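Hey, I'm writing a tutorial for new members on how sequence and structure tokens pair up, and I'd like a real worked example in the thread rather than a made-up one. If someone can provide the structure for the chain below, I'll link this post from the tutorial.
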Amino acid sequence: MSSMHIGLISILFVFIFLFARMPVAYVMLVVGMTGFAMIRTPEAMFSLASGALYNTFASYSLLVVPMFVWMGYVAFYSGLSSRIYDATYKVMGSLKAGLLLATIAACTAFGAICGSTTATAATMSAVALPEMKKYNYNRSLSTATIASAAILGVMIPPSVIFILYGVSAGESIRRLFLAGIFPGLLLMVLFMLAAYLQTVRKPELAPPGKSVPWSEKFKAVLSGGVEVLVIFVAVMGGLFGGVFTPTEAGAVGVFATLVVALVRRQLSWEGFKNSLTDSVRISAMIMFLVAAAAIYGRFLGLSGLPRELATWAVELPLPPVAILFVILLIYLILGFFIDALALILLTVPIFYPVAVELGFDPIWFGVIIVLALGMGVITPPVGANVYVVAGVDRETPVMEIFRGVGWYLVAIIVCAVLLTAFPQIALYLTDFVQ
């Protein structure tokens, strides 16, 4: 049996195990180690596995992951997320679909200090849903808006998924962060448009909230908005200005968030301990996923499958955009069953060479992939964001939330089409850094 055949069979086994609901990290680890042993030797396999596990957990560049995760949890436990929502709610709440628009804007702002889509979904569910229920917003629309807008948590830097893509593809994390800003803002506008159009058709879905005096709006913006701006500028300003590396930016972000929380006297000792506990738990899961994906990726590279797939794709009698559409369709389908973090680690070794061979900019391709993964976190049966929101709001059935995401899926597709037609939306800012 050739190395190529072993690689193809391994993919089949991966999906069989995933459909059997086995943990993704263990599947990639076991299949990768078994395949590597078949192509090389068991001794080489054990050497690869031990080296990959150690190098991942000891990696300086990956230290940024727990830093940005901790940054988000400090913001949550210090009440910063609540102040962000309070600011957007007071500014937009009295408009038609105002609470929906406020939630989308709050997810965008929270995304500037949190690199996780699920953390954004959980946080915004806790602070936004009570207000929406108070004003009799449609349950399906309210919960679907939060689940969908949480995607902005990984489009707006810092983003854990951009970091993992950069590490897997060997691309600049700084440039990926820059590339996500304009597409993230574009997606925010499209989400707001989708929410507004739904309420134009049926105003009873989202009645306006109470009107707030301009003085109160200004005070709320100063409270929540300035804090986010300070943290964002401290992290991204130094990163893009070349003052420090992405890893150092993560440490600066945590420090800035802690300083803001301490100045406000909003972070209790219990909240501080909980932020550490949650960050360690999530970070350990991500790092183990990265290590398992590294082993499986090394095995796939050894099998020659990614190289052959890239050659095959380039020689297809189709324009590159058509092949890109097929890749995005594959991501959408896989996203039905596989978590976003696992999916990007599993597929980048396969599709990244294809994108490069087709002449696509790898930074732009990373943004498109994150958009495609965004569809996966709000579609059944996995739909991680939907389950997170359902876990917070026990009153709304999961399928009712899934029924409400249709308009937002359309918004993501429109965003992807616009980015494909006008790549400079993502690449404009990247021209200013190396």
